[in-house]
Amino acid sequence: MQTKGLLGLALVTAGAAIAVAVTLQKGEAQGGPEDLGLLFEGLDDRINDVATFSIMKEGETLTLERSDEDPNEWLVSSIGGYPAKYEPVKKAVVRLANMAIQERKTNKPTHFEKLGVTEPEAEGSTSRRITVADASGNELASVILGETTFRGRNPITYVRRTGEERVYLCDGKIDAEPEIRTWIDTVALRLENDRIQEVTITHADGEILELGRDEDNHTQFRVKNLPPGRELSHESVANGIATALSSLSFDEVRPADEIDFQAEPLVQARYLCHDGLVLTIEMARADDKTWARLRTSYEAPPAPPEPAEETEDEEAAEASPDELSTGTPDPQAIRAEAEEMATRHALWAYALPSYKADAISKRMEDLLAKLPEPAVAPERVAPEVPGEATETFDFGDIKDSTDNGEG
Q1: What is the DSSP string of 370-390?
Q2: How many CA atoms lie within 13 A of 277 on its CB side?
Q3: What is the reported pLDDT for 165?
Q4: 294: nearest Cα among 312, 313, 269
Q5: Ramachandran angles phi, psi of 47, nearest 5°
Q6: Which long-range contacts (CB under 8 A, 24 or more apart) does 11-19 make?
Q7: What is the tens place of the pLDDT at every residue in 360-381?
Q8: CA dihedral sign of residues 341, 345, 346, 347
Q9: Is residue 43 classed as helix, strand or coil in its secondary structure?
Q10: Strands 167-171 and 221-223, how do they pair?
Q11: Which residues on adjacent β-strands are paired with residue 145?
């Protein structure tokens, strides 16, 4: 196994081990706890062999593996090998290798719940199990992390080695939760707003919204297919559709083949950049979430208009230093960027936060000023005709003609 990527870990571990030893010596000199050694003796010598790192909490497990191709790269194997951040893994593994025992505690299972070291699979358990193994799957260390408290300003944690009943109080703590955003970069892409030239949003029901840069004010987007007689609610209302990609974050990621984008499709948004980069976002609903998959390509931008003929002296006099130093985009570089992005996103589907999904799936009516309420016609009342009186009758004065009063 290559060790290039973890040489840094080994150096950090050695330094931390020295610091722990010095701390313990000072503690003993002042009547502190005796030196009971490291929780996992020898792990610091095998830190370069660590190839898998897993966290279990409440019965669910997040597992990370070192890439075979690059020892500096870690992948989240429990979600199909999505790239993980290196630093959080490094920090957790080093912390585990240097965790020193401060005190021996109980070995009675009846006390485990109070100290937070019950099995993480147990109902109501708040513990975490951290396990590291080598490339062959051989376990190097496994521990159940319980409650963390403080001794002075220093954190201390109740722990129990997996498979043992003895509880120990160890120095420090390990910040390792199975929350995915701790281990990966949850921004799928960053596309600067000023690169975007046009946006076309096509809804599943056929509605199309077309946006483009305003020719008179390049900082604003206009609706190219604005319905006759309608106006935008305000000048900048369409800008949010473009700025949504300046940091396209996500809440969850899965292999793309796990999401059926045909079952409940929503929109397809096509972003065309002035330099030729084309980004297409396809969105669909699944498992009560809005999922997106990304595709990129290159489309040669139209040639700029021919400038009016001027002398070299006139051109130099009119051009600013910035204009003189700024060249046109390199088609080869943009094409390479599109290919790299296409490869990076081809395998994944991203669950978008609702505010991002809403920004990318705007409808025409969302951008338009409301129509005025129609005027309500007053209720019509039939006019009275002058000179006509209304006759009233007292039916009590009318007698039956058969009644002659003779009984």
Answers
A1: PPPPPPPPPPP-PPPPTT---
A2: 23
A3: 96
A4: 269
A5: -65, -30
A6: 12/90, 12/94, 13/44, 13/47, 13/94, 13/97, 13/98, 14/44, 16/94, 16/98, 17/44, 17/98
A7: 999 999 999 998 877 776 777 6
A8: positive
A9: helix
A10: unpaired
A11: 128, 159
Sign of CA dihedral 248, 250, 255, 256: negative
The helix/strand/coil state of 80 is coil
Residues recorded for the chain: 407
CB 352 within 8 A of CB 262: no
Contact of 60 with 72, CB cutoff 8 Å: no
pLDDT digits 0-9 by tens, 319-359 = 444 443 445 789 999 999 999 999 999 999 999 999 999 99
Six-digit token pair at 327? 């060249």
d(C-alpha 58, C-alpha 254), whole Å: 21
Both tokens of 297, joined, read: 């390509």
Angstrom distance (rounded) from CA 68 to CA 156: 35
Residue reference for tokens 């521990």: 143
pTM of the model: 0.75
Query: How big is the chain by its Cα radius of gyration, in Å?
Result: 36
